[in-house]
């Protein structure tokens, strides 16, 4: 006669086999996980194909390829000239001075459609374009504004013209040295000098364009509203302009920590105080009420969907992750609030530069229009769109600019100079 222990053993064995069969069936019916990077790519294929048409395939390839970097020479190191000579021996050229060296032969023969783009739009002070949405997209082949309309103050497009005369950068760029490789090789990590200061900072070359668009003047008080991780702040400090003060603000603790680390690694001890650099960690949306009419120039590099990072970034920190869906849907509201706060914080006659690292028309030109309208309705602030055509013309052989921008300028990813995407637009406060 079978014992009770044997009966229990047989029963538990059948139960275990049943559980194994159930788990196999459950895993067999489970859908494979959807990665956030794939979600981002599917959305980009949907929207950007309509925005760029046939050009999207080459832009898509560049986004999925290894990005290209540049080296911003630190002028506060022990011997910046020796650093420049060392970078030249590696095969790099200074695109602030010798951008013609980065012009490949195939560009010289065929031309790049984006290189002929000059984003010069004069916005009427009390006129704001209708609000945009992702559905209201246009192709790069849209008709654009003529030079006559631009001179008369009419809005509605940009001029596609290339000036044969030489175009020079503003005085703010006279002290910036930005080196880029003529091939696809990478820069070695920067080494500290005798004082422990790193010699150059690795960044996307297009990141200096918003800094140049600030058009800094001697005595300006500058606010970098979203300063982390610190590349643009470092570029502002490295300009030849003697500023009265720089406020580097970063609300996120991790990025603020990185900002302080960059300033510590690239500036000599006490130089931050000497240059009037102050690091803060306030909510950027509060600057309009905290310090109204206080700054001559404001840089607003807002959080965005970060097109390139969304395809290559860590899964947990990807903005397209399901856990960050609410943050992504509320992003446009945050961008409008940040830019509106910047327009309130700048003095009348001062300038604000808005920038993103996305190609989304809603997050770029659409946000600019909405923020201008919001500032006008809530604070009676009138603004106009500034001209950035000199930057577009000077860097037309180094970057590929989109022809579809009606205001501001957009750097498109392209091979072999795989920089961007980066959008920037200059606004001038009138009253």
Task: Summarize this entry quickly.
This protein has 431 residues and is α/β, with parallel strands linked by helices. Helix content is 37%, strand content 15%.
What is the N-to-C order of secondary-structure elements (H for helix, E for strand)?
HHHEHEHHEEHEHEHHEHEHHHEHEHEEE
In CATH terms, the superfamily is Vaccinia Virus protein VP39
Low-pLDDT stretches are 104-165
Beta strand count: 13
- Kindly, what is the distance between the CA atoms of the first and last residues, rounded to a whole number of angstroms? 100 Å
- Alpha carbon gyration radius: 25 Å
- What portion of residues belong to β-strands? 5-15%
The shape, in one word, is globular
**What is the highest CATH level, the class?**
Alpha Beta
What is the annotated CATH architecture? 3-Layer(aba) Sandwich
Number of helices: 16
Region (Disordered): 136-163
Binding site for S-adenosyl-L-methionine: 226-232, 250, 283, 301
Organism: Branchiostoma lanceolatum
Family: Belongs to the class I-like SAM-binding methyltransferase superfamily. RsmB/NOP family.
Topology diagram in text:
Layout: H1 4-29, H2 36-52, H3 56-64, E1 70-73, H4 80-89, E2 92-94, H5 105-110, H6 147-151, E3 178-181, E4 200-203, H7 208-213, E5 221-224, H8 231-237, E6 245-249, H9 253-266, H10 271-274, E7 277-280, H11 287-290, E8 295-301, H12 307-312, H13 325-329, H14 331-345, E9 346-356, H15 362-379, E10 383-385, H16 389-394, E11 400-401, E12 409-412, E13 422-429
Parallel strand pairs: 5-6, 5-8, 6-7, 8-9
Antiparallel strand pairs: 1-3, 1-4, 2-3, 9-13, 10-13, 11-12, 12-13
